């Protein structure tokens, strides 16, 4: 069973930076795309951005120019560099992977457990 494990969350001051990581572990899987989502208290989970097989990235407008998604394919690890953080970035951040596992040919979505990011002075 593929597992996704996020790390790097915590407390940051407005204008500060944090870097989140998401490591995928398991055997015999192929990742087609990975995404970061977030969910603030009382709000629906929203897509922050993603990176597809080609390396192309997409971001929600509210984080463009501040957040950067990257990956290390050799380590099956996804990153989210968050700069110029704002209080409204406070949320639980989730990693999501679209992948095939074992002999399956149809990709499925897998989720991490989430990591808390709090932006406050």
How would the global form be characterised?
elongated
Please, how many helices? 0
Poorly predicted residue ranges: none
Assembly level: single chain
Number of strands: 11
Description:
- The protein is mainly beta.
- The protein has no helices and 11 strands.
- The chain has strands at residues 3-7, 10-12, 18-25, 29-39, 46-52, 57-59, 67-72, 77-82, 91-101, 108-111, 115-119.
- The chain starts with a strand and ends with a strand.
- The relative contact order is 0.33.
- The model has no long low-confidence stretch (mean pLDDT 96).
Can you tag this structure with a few keywords?
121 residues, mainly beta, seven-stranded mixed β-sheet, four-stranded antiparallel β-sheet
Q: Summarize this, please?
A:
The protein is mainly beta and 121 residues long. The protein contains no helices and eleven strands. The protein has strands at 3-7, 10-12, 18-25, 29-39, 46-52, 57-59, 67-72, 77-82, 91-101, 108-111, 115-119.
List the SSEs and their pairings.
Elements: E1 3-7, E2 10-12, E3 18-25, E4 29-39, E5 46-52, E6 57-59, E7 67-72, E8 77-82, E9 91-101, E10 108-111, E11 115-119
Parallel strand pairs: 2-11
Antiparallel strand pairs: 1-3, 3-8, 4-5, 4-9, 5-6, 7-8, 9-10, 9-11
């Amino acid at each position: 069973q593929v597992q996704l494990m996020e790390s790097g969350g915590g407390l940051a001051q407005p204008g500060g930076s944090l870097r989140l990581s998401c490591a995928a572990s398991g055997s015999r899987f192929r990742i087609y795309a990975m995404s970061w989502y977030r969910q603030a208290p009382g709000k629906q989970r929203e897509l922050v951005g993603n990176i597809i097989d080609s390396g192309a990235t997409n971001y929600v407008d509210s984080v463009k120019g501040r957040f950067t998604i990257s990956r290390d394919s050799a380590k099956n690890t996804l990153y989210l560099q968050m700069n110029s953080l704002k209080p409204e970035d406070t949320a639980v951040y989730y990693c999501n992977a679209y992948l095939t596992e074992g002999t399956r040919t149809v990709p499925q979505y897998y989720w991490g457990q989430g990591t808390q990011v709090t932006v406050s002075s």
